[in-house]
């Protein structure tokens, strides 16, 4: 009985020689964990799966706002800020993964940021300070993703049926129902195939955005280009900090511990390989969209998709938009 509990504890702590615990010990272990811990405890992933998870948690539709950030920074400051954002976040995420690995070797495996906060701040602060913040972030992400998905579905619908009468809320309900179904997936590791598809879609829509920007920007009928910054000092200062906030949040990733928890032991070196995959995609998508979008549209609208709608006559012959 004692050896069974030891084996179960070893699996939780992430030892390199951990073996699957007996059924009775596993049941006891899972009763001691909450649903969030059980969701990420299935540690069977490879570094390639880790790359899928990391990429889709960073490369997201907000990258389409990067040209707007460049408009407040200019060419030099914009490119430098984007490079610095990539370097700093890559280093910090790798450092965080090393800290998590070090604590796992000491027998304290942290599956979530909340577990880290509990270890550092104590049980009460970890639960009542970090917990609400995480809930608000997750809630905002779910609401924003559902609305964005509904808007994209409606845009596709209007392309195929310009005179269609379906409303936005109907598409939001449809997309929300699809997300509700996907939310029933039992573990983070089970998302690896979906995240692979998501990674490919990220590359696809980023490539389309960059190609469309280059096409419109090189057209003689394209929008006027003026890369000078706003002459009003107050507007420039607020725009500068707003642009830095856009770049910083675009590189944000709040689930590093959860992603590392999906890796099969030993985890040494796997997170670094996953981060390398992730930042190859990040570099290809972020820089191509930011530079081509700013070059083509300068300072038109905050989202590059809005610029495409305004200039639809240049690239959409039938004027469906």
UniProtKB/TrEMBL annotation:
InterPro entries reported for this sequence: AA_transpt_TM
Membrane-crossing residue ranges in chain numbering: 52-73, 79-100, 121-148, 168-185, 197-217, 237-259, 271-291
Superkingdom assignment: Eukaryota
GO BP terms: amino acid transport
An example Gene Ontology CC term for this record: membrane
Chain spans, region Disordered: 1-24
Predominant cellular place of this UniProt entry's protein: membrane
Keywords tagged on the record: Amino-acid transport, Membrane, Transmembrane, Transmembrane helix, Transport
Start-end of Polar residues biased regions: 1-12
Localization, UniProt: Membrane
Domain Amino acid transporter transmembrane, chain residue ranges per copy: 44-297
Name of the protein in question: GABA transporter 1
Naturally occurring in which organism (per UniProt): Sesamum radiatum (Black benniseed)
Native organism taxonomy: Eukaryota, Viridiplantae, Streptophyta, Embryophyta, Tracheophyta
């Amino acid at each position: 009985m004692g050896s069974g509990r030891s084996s179960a504890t070893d699996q939780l702590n992430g030892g390199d020689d951990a073996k699957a615990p007996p059924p009775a010990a596993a049941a006891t272990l899972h009763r001691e964990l909450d649903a969030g811990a059980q969701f990420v405890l299935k540690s069977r992933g490879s570094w390639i799966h880790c790359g899928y998870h990391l990429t889709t948690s960073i490369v997201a539709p907000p990258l389409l706002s990067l040209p707007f950030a460049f408009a407040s920074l200019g060419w030099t400051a914009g490119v430098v800020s984007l490079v610095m954002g990539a370097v700093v976040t890559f280093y910090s995420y790798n450092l965080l993964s090393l800290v998590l690995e070090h604590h796992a070797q000491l027998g304290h495996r942290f599956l979530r940021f909340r577990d880290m906060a509990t270890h550092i701040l104590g049980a009460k602060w970890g639960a009542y300070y970090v917990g609400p913040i995480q809930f608000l972030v997750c809630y905002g992400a779910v609401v924003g993703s559902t609305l964005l998905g509904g808007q994209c579905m409606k845009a596709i619908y209007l392309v195929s049926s310009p005179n269609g009468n379906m409303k936005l809320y109907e598409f939001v309900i449809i997309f929300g129902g699809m997300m509700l179904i996907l939310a029933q997936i039992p573990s983070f590791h089970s998302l690896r195939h979906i995240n692979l598809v998501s990674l490919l879609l990220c590359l696809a829509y980023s490539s389309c955005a960059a190609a469309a920007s280059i096409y419109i920007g090189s057209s003689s009928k394209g929008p006027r280009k003026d890369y000078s910054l706003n002459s009003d000092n107050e507007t420039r200062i607020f725009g500068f900090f707003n642009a830095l906030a856009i770049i910083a949040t675009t590189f944000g990733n709040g689930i590093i511990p959860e992603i590392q928890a999906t890796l099969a032991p030993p985890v040494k070196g796997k997170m670094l390989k996953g981060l390398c995959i992730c930042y190859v995609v990040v570099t290809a998508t972020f820089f191509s969209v930011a530079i081509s979008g700013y070059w083509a549209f300068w300072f038109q609208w905050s989202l590059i998709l809005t610029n495409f709608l305004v200039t639809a006559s240049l690239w959409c012959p039938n004027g469906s938009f």
